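INPUT
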Amino acid sequence: MSNTQTNHRSQKKYYFSRKKYCFFCKERIKLIDYKDVKILENFILDTGKIQPARVSGTCSYHQKQLTKAIKRARHMGLLKFVEPRRG
Amino acid sequence: MKGQYEIGYVLNPESTEEDVKKVADSILGIIKKAKGEIENVDEWGRRPLAYRIQNHNEGVFTFIKTDFDGSVVANIERRLRLSEKVMRFLVLRLDDKLKKANKLTKKWQKIDKNAKKTKTFPQKEKKDEEELKIKNEVKDE
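OUTPUT
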């Protein structure tokens, strides 16, 4: 029994030990442009929702810009709005 | 007060090349009258939309980067709103946010300096760059 318990613990630690970093800080992007859709698409879920910062790991400075850029891109018809769930 | 602005607009897919030129010329004319400078005109052309706008699946995109007086913005927005071919438009000011963004460069410079002092960081970055290069090469192929 003792062995199984330790295994569970080790697995949990393994899962949460992956390092997160801000994509825009690493690429040294100062201002996020709403026109580069290829980058913005990476921060959108399949439903069209904006990915939370705690999932993607972006810093607060860039997350604020990201949300604005995505909303601008939606207005211009470059990105989709949130789709309602079917059924 | 001069400022850096970006004008973007989406045209109807039914509009011909002449219509695209007409709209662009009308806006560029307003800017030239106000003694503004045109940095570049970015024409994307026809592009599929992410969702239907006015029952159209396509749009003609154009983006104009300019330096001009801020008092003209209202004039340009009115012109875009009144023209029937324009489906969506956006006028943004860019330079006021650059000041905030320039603070980041100081941060990054500090990080780079610290990375140079300690020998461990640059090696890691190099490894990452090599991996990225290999991935990019694979994608290109």
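end of record. Chain B touches chain A through 21 residues (CB under 8 Å).
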